[in-house]
Amino acid sequence: MLANKTALVTGSTSGIGLGIAKALAQQGAHLVLNGFGDAQAACAEVAAVAAPGARVSYQGADMSQPQQIEAMLRAAAAEFGRIDVLVNNAGIQHVAPIEDFAPERWDAVLAINLSSAFHTTRLALPAMKAANWGRIINVASVHGLVASAYKAAYVASKHALVGLTKVVALETATTGVTCNAICPGWVLTPLVQKQVDERAAALGLSNAEATKHLLCEKEPSLQFTTPEELGALAVFFCSAAAANVRGAAWNMDGGWAAQ
Ligand code: NAD
């Protein structure tokens, strides 16, 4: 379905980004990976499932740095011609009451979770519009729809990312470019394992108990969403059937936001 198309997935050396990258490569897309994890391992994992002919590349841009983002987009365009599928996925979390929230953590969360998507979008959109085809998929969160205490920067960044998604969807509404957001509930990735570890330490629980505690609190299905499920949703957004899905904030959250 995506043969001869190129996808850039930010923050794709682990977790959700890696899952989405694998799903897009299975559909034949060339992949540009990015992130601070083990790049070689991530490239090998994506290449192992990629459809014949799909190539895998890596760019190590720090998504908090606009100049590095610009250099990454230039390098990707030089290697593959243009980005057809842009997945804004890189993200970080910081948990603290607002009066103790370190201002530099606020700045970092906003830069990586939100501003990076502004920069990649403004840079990738002209070529998508010229080709009259493109897919922009913003990995927001159920925290783009509802809040939780102690996550001021994360919740603010994800609500804003949903807002940015809607603006881009409106500005591209008469073109072959679509922009949508995915809003996962809990997904067991390094980002969430850190929160399980913090909960286990704070409450004196085992890993299994802390995991159950985390799920019971917010996620009615009591099950993690998986990177594979999110990858399949991203593939749907890239399909012809989704050509008129525009500006959606699509939760895959085990019922979290329905409460
Ligand atoms: P993860 O920690 O496994 O992956 C985050 C990725 O972003 C990694 O590749 C990391 O190296 C990269 N990254 C972090 N800072 C970066 C920077 N400055 N520049 C470039 N890359 C950077 O976490 P994940 O859970 O897979 O998170 C991916 C996205 O999904 C995030 O935007 C997160 O907010 C969102 N999300 C996660 C969950 C969850 O439960 N795990 C739920 C909803 C939304």
What does this structure look like?
- This protein has 8 helices and 7 strands, in the order E-H-E-H-E-H-E-H-E-H-E-H-H-H-E.
- The protein folds into 2 domains: 6-185 and 226-252, Rossmann fold, CATH 3.40.50; 188-224, no CATH class.
- 48% of the residues lie in helices and 13% in strands.
- It has a 7-stranded parallel beta sheet, with helices on both faces.
- The chain is of the alpha/beta class.
- 43% of the residues are buried.
- Strand 2 (30-33), helix 2 (39-49) and strand 3 form a beta-alpha-beta unit.
- The structure holds nicotinamide-adenine-dinucleotide.
- The site of nicotinamide-adenine-dinucleotide has 29 residues, from helix 1, helix 4 and helix 6.
- It comes from Serpentinimonas raichei.
- One of its GO terms (molecular function) is 3-hydroxybutyrate dehydrogenase activity.
- Belongs to the short-chain dehydrogenases/reductases (SDR) family.
